[in-house]
Amino acid sequence: MVHRYLLLNKPYNVLSQFTGERSLAPYVKVPEVYVVGRLDADSEGLLLLTSDGPLQHRLSDPKFAHPRTYWAQVEGVPTEEAMEQLRRGVKVQDYITRPAQARVLESEPKFPPRDPPVRFRMSIPTSWIELMLTEGRNRQVRRMTAAVGFPTLRLVRVAIGDLRLGDLAVGAWRDLTVGELKLVRGQVNRPPHP
């Protein structure tokens, strides 16, 4: 069997599954592919899909700590202290997150407007930050930014390891290039996180 490896730019308010309302089915009509990891309905951006079960399992297993990069529009202007907390790890619920790479983006990314639009308050500015995580707990980015006092308004995953969202249109998908497939297979061969 020849496996398929796809990148999809998941729209807002779509679930990372192929059944039920608001599913990926209208966007990806390739049989027998499954989502590697997930994005919440209110998150947007890069999803990897494949028919390669062992690769899907390996990339989804948290013990292998595959990096994922998010751009988050947050309420307010994050302080250096808040960014340092994100870098060290933040207590959310009953655990402390792994350290993350975190930085404030110098300019607003050129994403298409979201439908429905993000709520804005005239008296509170917004900023965009980048977070690179090596764990993927439920709603983790949103919980982390809220814990340091800067709630997430919009969340877009822009990278999974070395795979990049680039200019892939919202709702569009494409096959991985030969070079990207080599990068993915290289990630699979990394040792587990201690």
Description:
- This protein is α+β, with helices and mostly antiparallel strands and 194 residues long.
- It has two domains: 5-63 and 162-188, Alpha-Beta Plaits, CATH 3.30.70.580; 67-159, 2-Layer Sandwich (Alpha-Beta Plaits).
- 19% of the residues lie in helices and 28% in strands.
- The protein is built from four helices and eleven strands, in the order E-E-E-H-E-H-E-E-E-E-H-E-E-E-H.
- The strands form two sheets. Strands 1, 2, 3, 4, 7, 8, 9, 10 and 11 form a nine-stranded mixed beta sheet that branches.
- A hairpin with a 2-residue loop joins strand 9 and strand 10 (163-164).
- The longest helix is centred in the C-terminal third of the chain and has 11 residues, at 178-188.
- The chain is globular and about 55 Å long.
- The mean pLDDT is 91.
Question: Main traits of this protein?
Answer:
194 residues; two-stranded antiparallel ribbon; Alpha-Beta Plaits; 19% helix; 2 domains; globular; 9-stranded mixed beta sheet; alpha+beta; 4 helices
The CATH homologous superfamily of the largest domain: Alpha-L RNA-binding motif
Overall domain count: 2
Distance between the amino and carboxyl termini: 34 Å
* Total strand segments: 11
User: What's the architecture of the largest domain in CATH terms?
Assistant: 2-Layer Sandwich
For the report, how would you describe the main beta sheet? Answer: 9 strands, mixed
Low-confidence stretches: none
Annotation field: number of helices: 4
CATH class of the largest domain: Alpha Beta
